[in-house]
Amino acid sequence: MARKHAWDHALDDAIKSISIQHSLTGYISKGIALCGQGLVWEAKIAFDIASMATNQDSTNIHFLHLIKAIALFNANQCKEAMLLIKELATMFPNINTLAHRVVEAYLRVELGTKALGDARHDEAADHFTAAVNSGAFSSKIIHQTYEDFVVIFGWNLPSLLLTTHQKRCQAFLSAGKTDEALEAHKCMMDAIDETAKASCLDWSNEFKEQCNALAEQDDRILSAEIPGQDQGGYDTEPNFFHGKHPVRVKYLPSFSLSHCSLQHSQNSRPRPQQRLQKLRLAMTRILRLASPSAPPTTSPPVAIATSFKTYLRHIFTRPPRHATPPVVDVPFAKA
Question: pLDDT tens digit string along 247-279?
Fold first, then answer.
């Protein structure tokens, strides 16, 4: 009943079995049925009681917790289930390692399938890759050795190797990684037998066509010529100020034409108020020099006037050796 997800009937059967005789199988069945109904807390209690019927046998304890991890995973307790699988590998490093790898790989495939359905392609590819690299599905006897998983949960172990490889290929392709997808396809063809190759021939041909189409699309995008550039990716006619608004700026030769330096030259240019203030300070100095309180060594008035005129000429005129800089249009971006 648990295999058919008829959880109510499965729980009734488990309770009847326990009422007849307390057994490991009865409490395992009860725990699985309770997880199927979403009653996780009650299911954990059933599994804890089941552990008391293992006779402290390490192999039975390990197998019980594998079943518990699968049941918790099916109840959407995925993180707890994967954590339990990890802890089991630490606690029982040498007990039934193939069974442990089979369960972990199967749950990885389930996680990858969910991620692929939610368009989380990279995450899905990671899960499928982990399942493939585990080597758990490469054994030809897993469906015979672990028939309990098939009976209890309805797993299809014989076809799991091919299914995992195909989903891995699809995850890479959906992520736009054609090279990885083709490499995964090659890995799949090396791993499966001739019977499996014949069964997936149509799928394989269609998959390779999709990879080629995606690769051609990527090549067209990369080889498309960008307007205003040559094939090397450089501007044929550079226009550094294309689309900018010109501003008439008179600049000094000592400044560069960069935006920051031109802005600095504009900000550092004295304003009319500053010039007037300098003129007033200069006049004040000259008047102080011409005042009666000045020492007798002060220059005569004619020399003072001459010095004042010279000072003004020095401020407001340019030396004749300097040519008037041209007025150029320097484009600036809008503020």
Answer: 444 444 443 433 333 343 444 444 555 555 666
DSSP annotation of 21 = -
| Cross-strand bridge partners of residue 235 | 229
Surface-to-core class of residue 215, CB atoms within 10 Å of its CB (0-12 exposed, 13-18 middle, 19+ buried): middle
Contact 5, 36 (CB under 8 A): yes
- Closest by Cα among 121, 114, 101 to 73: 114
Q: Work out whether strand 327-332 and strand 245-250 pair parallel, antiparallel, or are unpaired.
A: antiparallel
Tokens of 100: 């442990």
pTM (2 d.p.): 0.63
Q: Which of 23, 104, 115, 33 lies closest to 75, judged by CA? A: 33
Q: What value does the mean pLDDT take over residues 60-68?
A: 93
Most distant CA atoms of the chain, gap in Å: 134
